[in-house]
Design goal:
Blueprint: E1 2-7, H1 8-16, E2 21-25, H2 30-39, H3 52-60, H4 78-88, E3 97-101, E4 104-105, E5 111-112, H5 117-132, E6 136-137, H6 139-150, H7 154-160, H8 162-169, H9 173-179, E7 189-192, E8 195-198
Parallel strand pairs: 1-3, 1-6, 2-3
Antiparallel strand pairs: 4-5, 7-8
């Protein structure tokens, strides 16, 4: 399996331009929320801005705008997602796979790496390796997978650092609890016709 990893939107665009299967990981909490919504049968239309245009975008699609926070690859569905590239022929030299650790935005728009997203990307890469046998990972991707495998209690890391602490402070500890339920979801959200929807088998 050929797979690479990057952090933030700039690296995601660079890696994704040559990847047959781009994968986004945002542990807290967009990709986890997307998975939870799809388990309930809901399609999720991603929208970049949190301003008045988001509600207009939702209304155009006869949808409801999500407020404040949301949670495609996550700790919850990493094994389910790992089985899909193998079935679809992704993760080979001719159809490489790229995993992006999303991170956060600072007020000036620059990337603030989220401490939970790189091990989250590593969790996905580790599952991909286990599913696909011998894998050809870039050094960065191998380091991310090793980081995940060497972390004794990943859920504790998410709960007590960065975005996890922020969600506790904002009164959303349940979001952190749901996002750290490792391998509990069989949903694989795929961006199709502008919305994240359950992948066809």
């Amino acid at each position: 399996m050929d797979a690479s990893v990057g952090r933030g939107p700039t690296e995601a665009r660079v890696l994704g331009s040559s990847a047959a299967c781009p994968v986004v990981v945002d542990v807290l909490s967009f990709t986890a929320a997307v998975g939870v919504a799809e388990e309930a049968g809901t399609a999720v239309y991603p929208y970049r801005w949190r301003d008045g245009t988001a509600r207009a975008y939702a209304e155009q699609r006869n949808a409801a705008a999500a407020v404040g926070r949301s949670v495609a690859a996550s700790l919850r569905n990493r094994k389910a997602l790992a089985r899909r590239p193998a079935r679809q022929g992704h993760g080979t030299a001719s159809r490489p796979l790229a995993v992006a650790a999303a991170g956060e935005r600072r007020p000036d728009g620059s990337l603030r790496p989220a401490p939970e997203d790189l091990p989250g990307a590593g969790a996905v890469l580790s599952a991909l390796c286990a599913e696909g046998g011998a894998a050809v990972l870039t050094p960065e991707a191998r380091a991310a997978a090793t980081l995940w495998e060497a972390t004794e209690d990943p859920a504790a890391v998410v709960h007590h650092r960065g975005s996890g602490r922020e969600l506790y402070e904002y009164g959303y500890p349940q979001d952190v609890a749901v996002a750290t339920e490792v391998d509990t979801s069989h949903t694989v959200p795929v961006l199709t016709d502008g919305a994240f929807q359950e992948a066809a088998a």
